[in-house]
Design goal:
The protein is mostly helical. It is built from four helices and no strands.
Length: 98
């Protein structure tokens, strides 16, 4: 179970890294989104370090559940309310296209 979580986190990190680099390379208004993807890249990188640290020790069920919650909360929030998540990650960046 922890191996699946670690593999999923690595896949997410690689995807976020590539997306962030592509957005920065565009050098247009869309590059503003690179701030949010960079923050998520760092978040999941820290989560991967936490998973690797816990994998070396004997993980208990409560800690494993907490890591799953930390892994899934941003993804579920992104599916439910992507604009709210973007505003949470970048609170001072006001992009209102109305």
């Amino acid at each position: 179970m922890i191996k699946f979580l670690k593999t999923s986190t690595i896949i997410l990190i690689v995807l976020l890294f590539v997306i962030t680099l592509a957005l920065v390379a565009l050098q247009s208004l869309v590059s503003i989104i690179a701030i949010a993807t960079g923050i998520f890249f760092i978040y999941y990188l820290i989560l991967l370090l936490l998973i690797s640290f816990i994998n070396k020790q004997n993980p208990n069920q409560t800690l494993l559940t907490l890591i799953w919650v930390l892994f899934l909360v941003p993804l579920l929030w992104l599916l439910i309310n992507p604009e709210g998540l973007f505003e949470f990650v970048t609170p001072n960046l006001n992009i209102d296209m109305k």
